[in-house]
Amino acid sequence: MLLTLIIVIFISSSITADSCESFVHGDYGRTGQCIKISACLNNVYLPKLCESKSMDVMCCFNTTISYKGCPTIIHRARWNAINPKEQTSLATPVPFVAIYDTVSPSCRTHHECVKQIQGIQKYHMKEKNWSDIGYNFLISESGLIYEGRGWNYIGAHRQGYNSRSIGIGMIGNYSLRKINKSAANALESLIQCGFQSMLLLLIVTAVFVTSIAGDSCESYAHPTYGKTGRCIKTSDCPNSLYISNLCESQPVDIKCCFSPSAPTPNCPNIVSRSEWGARAPKSTTGMAKSLPYVVIHHTTGGTCTAKSACIVKMKGFQNYHMDSNGWDDIGYSFLVGEDGNIYEGRGWTYVGAHTYGYNSQSIGISVIGDYMSQKPNAAAINSVKALIECGISRGYISRAYTLRGHRDLDSTSCPGNAFYNEIKTWTNYRSLVRSNASPQFNVPEDYLVMQDM
C-alpha cells in the first residue's frame, strides 16, 4: 500500500499543464492553443508545446493582428509574405493617411486576395527593387484588411510623405467606379483604429488618392543633418551616413545618404549613432514634437575630453542599458562630452528612458562624468545650451519649455550638486517641490532611469 501511494504521488507531480497557452510567440504573442495540425490555419504551429496531447496535436497560433477597439488585420504570415530586405521604423503618430487603388483586379475571397497581394509584393520587390511591398495596409472589397509594412515601418507609396504617413492600398481599379460599402467601412475602421491606438494624429491633415510613386529621400528631415539627403550608392556615402527605404524607386544598393558636414542652421554638429557605432535598438516609440520639458542628467563615472574616449564611453553606456538593464536602447536622448561634442542617443524623434513619468514629455540630456563637486567644463555647458536652442529652432522643444534637473523629478543626486547649481541659473529652469522625500544621494543614477509604462 505504501509503495502504491508513493507511485501515485510521483506520477501526479510529474504531469504538468501544456506549455502552449503560456508560450509567447515572437510574432503572435500568447495566442497558442492545442489543436490538430489539420485544423491549424496556414500551418502556423510549433511542436513539443502540447506535451499531454497526441502526436498530431500541435500548438497553433492565431495569425490575425488585434488591437483594442480595432478591426481584425490579417498578418503578413497569412498571405505568405516574402521577408523584407530592410526596414526603417516609422515615428508615430503620423499626420497623413494616403489612400490608393492598386490598379489590379479586385478580390473578394481570402484566396483571391492572397494571390493579388503576393503579386503586388513581387512586383514592388523584384521589378522596382524596393525592400518590401510599398503599402502599409491593403483592403479588399469583402472588407478584409491585410498587413503590408504595418504601423511600425516606413512605406513606399508617396514621394515626400512616406515617413509621415500610413499608405493604404484599396485592392482594385477605381478610376471609373468607387469602392463598395464593405471596403469603405473597413477603411474607416482602420483609420479609427489608428486614432485609438495613437498611431495617427487626431486630425489627419490630408488624404491623397494617387498612383504609387517614388523617392522620399530629398524631403526627409534627418534628426541631425536636416534635408541634406540624396540617393547615391552606399559605397559613395561618407561614413555610411545613410537610411534605407527612402530611395524607393532605385536599385537596392542606392540609399538616402546624408551630409555630415552640413548641420542644420542654428544647430551644433551632432555625432550620429552611426558615427559612434551604436547598436540597433530593439524597438522604438515615436516622440511628439514641441515637448514641454528638458531634463538634465550626469552619467556619473569618469569624464572624457577626446572624441575617441567619449565614443568608448557611449558604447559602454549603451551596452549596459541594453544588456544589464534590459532596455530597448541607450536611455538618454543625447549625451555631451567635455570634448564639446554632442552624441546622439535616442535623438529627437524617439521616446527615451531617463526620467520616470517624463520620458514621453521631455528630451533627456546627460553630460558624461560625475559633477557632484565640480560642474562640467565650458565646452560641455555651451554644447548643452546650443543643443536646447537647436531643439527649439527645429520645433522639437517648446519655446516655453521648462528646464529641470533629474533630482527635481525623482529621488536621486543627479545631475550632481555642482551641475545642479549651475542649471538653476539658466533662464528656463523652474524648481519643483516634490511631495515625496528629499533626494537620496546614495541611490545610483541608473537605478532610477526607467521607461514610462
From TrEMBL:
Keyword Signal: yes
Pfam (any one): Amidase_2
GO molecular function, one term: zinc ion binding
Gene Ontology annotations of biological process type: immune system process; peptidoglycan catabolic process
Keyword Signal recorded: yes
Domain annotation N-acetylmuramoyl-L-alanine amidase: ranges: 83-226, 280-416
SMART domains hit by this protein: Ami_2, PGRP
Signal sequence, renumbered to the chain: 1-17
Start and end residues of each Peptidoglycan recognition protein family domain: 71-213, 268-410
Keywords annotated in UniProt: Immunity, Signal
Similarity field: Belongs to the N-acetylmuramoyl-L-alanine amidase 2 family.
Protein name: Uncharacterized protein
Organism placement in taxonomy: Eukaryota, Metazoa, Spiralia, Gnathifera, Rotifera
